[in-house]
Amino acid sequence: MRPGRPAPWAELPPERRHPTLDDVRAAMATAPPPHPTDREHEHVRASAVLAALYDADDEAHVVLTRRAQHLRSHRGEVSFPGGGQEPGEDLWATALREAHEEVGLDPTSVTRIGELDHLRTITSRSFIVPYVATLPGPPRLTAAPGEVELVLHVPLSELLADGVYREERWGVPPQDRPIFFFEVVGDTIWGATGAMLRNLLALITGTYDPDDRPLPWSVPSGQLRPGGST
């Protein structure tokens, strides 16, 4: 493990680190097409997640979840609501269904505004499509006890603050890869969720590099997860 690069937004002044929902809409309206992965045409499992954002106290917040501790995999990790595609279902419908099942989000309140770069995992042979959406205001959400321990409402300004983000290089060069972390109060967000958040925040702040393509992300079974979360 070695230190990685600074945050894409590291040089931005403080006034550009408090985006509103209007800033999110404007950024997604001009965002480049999302990068697909190189395995989406194979017969692999597809998943979708929902990055739902809303304004509160004059700044944009994002909905995240802390997964239940009793789950067999990824327990205690922080993630976007989401999950696997069901037969006959398009991936946008997957994201809406999973958000409704996990946190009770009303699908009729959700407006789709964009899509982030797709990610793929190695160990589960799947790819993830992250959708970005807006909500009309702070939602009333309830964690489904079978899946979610806690619903998190995180201001984007907190994620963009100095000292919250870091990058590490894992593996032996030249096969090493960047792993992205966000240290928020009570949780470490990392892995696939960290990569998606970095992508989203870089687009919103105008610091997105189209050549900085997402890489496969996986953690071998049984590997210790920093802080117990991702």
Itemize the secondary structure elements and their pairings.
Elements: E1 2-3, H1 21-29, E2 45-56, E3 59-67, E4 78-79, E5 82-84, H2 91-103, E6 111-115, E7 119-121, E8 126-134, E9 148-155, H3 156-160, E10 165-170, E11 177-184, E12 187-190, H4 191-205
Describe the structure.
It is a single chain. By secondary structure, the protein is an alpha+beta fold. It has one domain: Nucleoside Triphosphate Pyrophosphohydrolase (Alpha-Beta Complex). Helix content is 18%, strand content 31%. It has four helices and twelve strands, in the order βαββββαββββαβββα. It has helices spanning 21-29, 91-103, 156-160, 191-205, and strands spanning 2-3, 45-56, 59-67, 78-79, 82-84, 111-115, 119-121, 126-134, 148-155, 165-170, 177-184, 187-190. Strands 2, 3, 4, 5, 6, 7, 8 and 9 form an eight-stranded mixed beta sheet that branches. A four-stranded antiparallel beta sheet has the order 1-10-11-12. It is globular, with a radius of gyration of 17 Å.
**Helical coverage, percent range:** 10-25%
Q: How many H/I helices? A: 4
Total number of β-strand segments? 12
Overall number of structural domains: 1
**CATH fold-type name:** Nucleoside Triphosphate Pyrophosphohydrolase
Average residue-wise pLDDT: 86
What form results from the Cα inertia axes? globular
Name the CATH superfamily assignment. Answer: Nucleoside Triphosphate Pyrophosphohydrolase
CATH architecture level-2 label: Alpha-Beta Complex
Could you give the order of the helices and strands? EHEEEEHEEEEHEEEH
- Low confidence ranges: 218-230
Distance between the termini: 17 Å
Structural class, from helix and strand content?
alpha+beta
* Rg, Cα atoms, Å: 17 Å
Specify the CATH class.
Alpha Beta
Largest sheet report: 8 strands, mixed
Which percent band covers the strand fraction?
25-35%
